[in-house]
Amino acid sequence: MDRQAPSRDVTPDSAFGFDGNWKDFAKIALPNQMLTILTLGIYRFWATARERRYLWAHSRFVDERLEWSGTGRELFIGFLLAAAVILLPLFGLNLLIQSLTLRGEEALAGWLTFVLFLGVYYFTGLARFRGLRYRLSRTHWRGIRGGSDDQGLGYGVSYTWKSFVGYLPLGLLVPWSMTSLWNERIGKMSFGPHRFEAHAASGNLFARFLLFYLLPIVLVVGLTVAAFAGYGIDQARGGEAIPDLGITGMLILAFFVWFFVLGLVAAAFYAKYYREVVGATEWADLNFAFEASTMDWIRLYLGDFLLVVATLGIGFTFVKYRHWKFFMTHMEAGGEILLDNLTQSTTRVAGHGEGLLDAFDIGAV
Amino acid sequence: MRSISAPSDPMRDPLLIEASWYDGRSAVRHEGEAVWEGGPALVLRNGDDRFDIPFSDLAYGERRGQTDVYRLASNPGFRLSLPHVLPPDLAARMPARSDYGAWVDKLGFGKAALIFAVVSASLAALFLTAPTWLGPRIPMSWERRIGDAMVGDLGGRLCHTPAGDAALAKLLGKVDPAGQAVRAGVFNADMVNAAALPGGQVLVFDGLIQQAESPEELAGVLGHEVGHVHERHVMTAMLRQFGLSILLSGANSGIGDTVFGLASMTYSRDAEREADEYARARMAQSDVSPIGAASFFERIGGRGGKEPEKPASDEGSMFDWVASHPAPGERARAYRAAVDADATYRPALTDREFAALKSMCADDPDVEEFDLF
Description:
The complex is a heterodimer of chains A (365) and B (373). Helices cover 61% and strands 12% of the residues of chain A. With 365 residues, chain A is of the alpha+beta class. Chain A has a domain at 202-279. In chain A, helix 1 (22-38) runs antiparallel to helix 2 (44-57) and helix 7 runs antiparallel to helix 8. The longest helix of chain A has 36 residues, at 244-279. With 373 residues, chain B is α+β, with helices and mostly antiparallel strands. Chain B has 3 domains: 15-98, Roll (PH-domain like), CATH 2.30.29; 101-135; 138-363, no CATH class. Chain B is built from 14 helices and 11 strands. In chain B, helix 5 packs across helix 7 (215-230), helix 5 (162-175) crosses helix 13 and helix 7 (215-230) crosses helix 10. Classes of the chains: A alpha+beta (365), B alpha+beta (373). At the A-B interface, helix 1, helix 2, strand 4 and helix 3 of A face strand 2, strand 5, strand 7, helix 3 and helix 4 of B.
């Protein structure tokens, strides 16, 4: 026996799979939580590495499992680097602005605040890029890893200006900035010798975005009318006789309607967004799809909410498990992979982890 | 199949173990066997291919069901899968399994958790107690430099008139007879507040001055803040805040969570009591009656000794200063108890001087308005 067949057909209903279970994950996550508390938070880097090792190892792509090769030590070093290179200067700038304001140099302080604001945007974009690059470079499949040769410095600039342009026309270009940033970010990543490519279009998202955009206005008008109706009920019942029923009841109702309806519409938008951007992503001869419907997203977030509330917060550690499982079970891929051509990535491997991402509190798994 | 020759341990046959591996160069999977002849290397065999893997190059990866995955230090993509259960002498040569991370694996979970708990508790204790003895040992000149860097001249928001400055200097002299490195200023803001800033600068807000009914009341407040400076409470509070943010930075690295600025700087109740004691001692030395300060606290807190409720609208109210301080009733009693029946108290300021202090901000044409926060 020598080699296996050198190519793999990928059928859409079986390309990705997940076979972990929460009880096994708990045996990792709960001791992690305890060690993290006992070390005043320092252990969380090693905790993350252990949890990812479990999640990746129970995720299957075609016929082989993924493998997380990142370590807690490199995440810790990444955190220290980000703290020294980014957070301390930002902290210093903030102190400078405070002292300038106290000295009456409001104009200069204003300008520096603007610089600080731009800086936070820039580093957020940079952090997202570096985080993705780091995760790809630590994800192995059949011994092959991903990565990027781009440092992400240009992406930070794009992230800053595209975010601004997205918000400028009353936020109407937000779908464009989201898809265009996805295309730019993903297009600079590779796995093995092949680049990813993404050509997501914002046009397909626009109807859902308008729903998300206009509904609050409709709601405000509708709820105002309802509130006045409630006031009318109060009056009809004799003014202050039953004051709690009308206007207060309507306000409570309005509060729930607001968050419930907006939550639903946000889920509808994100469902469409992920279907669009993942569906427009290709790698070598593979194309991807993400099949989660709006209802799937709602179930995911409702489940998270109940899990955290019912366990008084202890269950929060399982949220990342649920999200990874959600991601793996809804990812699909079709096409063919030539194993002989899938050679090792030549991208540079950063020696440290996603400290920036961590510093800006942009979590994923 | 080739025969295996020259095992280093002649008593034992070479071990043959089922193995599979990825070579780190392509995604093609290789299946064959690992052969160990007792030497310093494992031989991987796949048909006619065979190559050595020195044990020193092997690193443990992770457990995969009934197999363990090993990596190679010299080839980051190389992955070798071997059965989890290996013959004992081979298992002894393989790299140690790791799970939690090096330290915890070596110590065991229970022992490591215990050690971490002890170290964390000692660190927390150190960071909480160190400021109290370290603060007073930091030279005042350093603190002054820090203070100047932080607040500078407060953007011209200190009120100055010749008569007002003289009155303030006289009042400061009463509660700071040694004439040490304390600077006092009237801050142009309509809040009933007073503060000791880093660097020995004491501020009395104009709002508080307007509320004061006698110079003795102001002497009580000013003496209290001067007490904070002399007892080095400011430096202690800064160190405590700094220490806490370092201690918590492991748990929370988000820039939004770092505690910025002076806003959150508070003193302990003991520090507040010390500052009051300092004020009473200096006032007694300068023959300033403590009755004024007592009635000030009675006015803002009543005689019941309860913490006053903060009213919904507290624009220029009496409560800004009180909110962060011990119960005013208790303080009022302490000031009343400090009255010495044999002493002859003299007014802290003349009526004219007190009036100059009251009109200081209104009369200063150059002072900046405080309207930022």
